[in-house]
Amino acid sequence: MPTLFRESRILGIPTSLLVIFGILIPGWVMLIWTNASNEELASPTSHTTAHRNAQEARDEEARVYSYWPSTLRVDADMDSFWLNHEERICQTHPDEHGRIGVVSCDPTRDHQEHNIPVRFWGGVERNIVSDWKCRREGDDFVCRAID
Question: pTM of the prediction?
Answer without folding.
Answer: 0.56
